[in-house]
Design goal:
Layout lengths: L1 E3 L13 E3 L4 H8 L6 E4 L5 H6 L7 E4 L9 E4 L2 E5 L4 H5 L2 H6 L1 H6 L6 H6 L2 H7 L5 H8 L3 E6 L2 E6 H4 E3 L2 E2 L6 E8 L6 E7 L9 E7 L1 E2 L2 E2 L2 E5 L6 E2 L1 H7 L7 H10 L13 H18 L1
Parallel strand pairs: 2-4, 3-4
Antiparallel strand pairs: 1-2, 5-6, 6-11, 7-8, 7-11, 9-10, 12-13, 13-16, 14-15, 16-17
Helix pairs in contact: 10-11
Bound molecules: flavin-adenine dinucleotide.
């Protein structure tokens, strides 16, 4: 059913939009495929509603995903944990498969905003939004996760490495819905660390770092993903290279890794200059490597 808000005479800060609440993914995808209409999915609404109220977007139609049971749930599938797009952060925090197999996610979830936001915000919403200061895109990059996209023509999978393409930009086409994310399970020898610097607990990070490594002495298969520094979360491949094959007490390798951060682009924002961000990234690198 589609309700036309303008036709009902509601007064709202957001521009008028039509609203649909399909019960199945198939119906939702058909609505997204309507030619010539600007259609946006609605998940937790924690980012989309402010965007509408500030009139930064004016879609013709909102497709509410909240009644679609196919988009929820956390399933253990061989070497992967598959998380439905409409899974709330709060559900991830209490999930047994996440606690057991995705310790980096478990560790980082309390850093995402506050409980009220985590009760509504969804993993799919964060992935689709691609906020450069958000934790989830960085975590999925560090964990080498895959984003599962659905459209009326079928499904496709995009590696997190290729999904986040710019400031609030992703490889998702407008006719696609993020259906799920698939995250490789952590097996015995892998270690994880996460840290971020914020002005107050629960704020978006000024700079954050998610790290994974296969072995710690010497380091192998290190992945270092910084967020809050540029238009998207970024891996520092040069810093990884400086540290891989080295031990944690190798000060020269640590120095080279710190210098290698210069290869990343650090953008100034309202809170900090690019040089402050670079300094904070170096502080986090030291802390996180110590933890690993
Ligand atoms: C006060 C406050 C503080 C916050 N602090 C943080 C923070 O510290 N860290 C952090 O990461 N986030 C933070 N957030 C954002 C919060 O995590 C958002 O909820 C989340 O980023 C978006 O998820 P959502 O489910 O609310 O998506 P929505 O707001 O519903 O949607 C966001 C965007 O994604 C699209 N979308 C949603 N779901 C899908 C889907 N399945 N497929 C395709 N497109 C989709 C929508 O069309 C919209 O463009 C904060 C929000 C608030 C209000």
């Amino acid at each position: 059913m589609i309700v036309t808000a303008g036709g009902k005479g509601f007064r709202m800060k957001a521009p008028d939009f039509d609203y649909a609440c399909p019960k199945t993914l198939r119906e939702a995808l058909a609505l997204l495929d309507e030619n010539g209409r600007d259609v946006m999915p609605l998940a937790g609404g924690q980012s989309l509603m402010p965007v509408l109220n500030f009139r930064l977007a004016a879609p013709d139609l909102l497709v509410d995903l909240n009644a679609i049971s196919e988009l929820t749930g956390i399933t253990d599938q061989n070497d992967q944990i598959v998380i439905g797009a409409m899974t709330r952060y709060a559900d991830l925090e209490t999930s047994e498969p996440v606690t057991r197999h995705l310790p980096l996610l478990k560790q980082a979830l309390p850093f995402i905003a506050h409980p009220a936001i985590r009760n509504r915000g969804t993993i799919g919403g964060s992935v689709a939004l691609a906020d450069p200061a958000a934790e989830m895109p960085a975590l999925l990059l560090a964990l080498d996760a895959t984003i599962i996209l659905a459209s009326t023509t079928g499904e496709r999978q995009v590696a997190a490495d290729n999904f986040f393409t710019g400031l609030y930009e992703t490889a998702r086409r407008p006719d696609e819905i993020v259906k799920a994310v698939s995250v490789p399970k952590a097996f015995g020898a892998r270690r994880f660390a996460f840290d971020e610097l914020t002005r107050r607990h629960g704020d978006y990070a000024m700079v954050g770092l998610a790290a994974t490594v296969r072995a710690t002495s010497p380091f192998q298969e290190l992945r270092l993903v910084f967020f809050g520094i540029a238009d998207r979360a970024l891996r520092s491949v040069d810093a990884e290279r400086a540290l891989n094959g080295r031990t944690c007490d190798d000060q020269q390798a640590m120095q080279r890794a710190t210098e290698a951060l210069a290869a990343l682009s650090f953008d100034s924002d309202v809170h900090s200059s690019s040089s402050t961000k670079r300094h904070l990234a170096a502080v986090l690198l030291k802390r996180v490597m110590r933890t690993l």
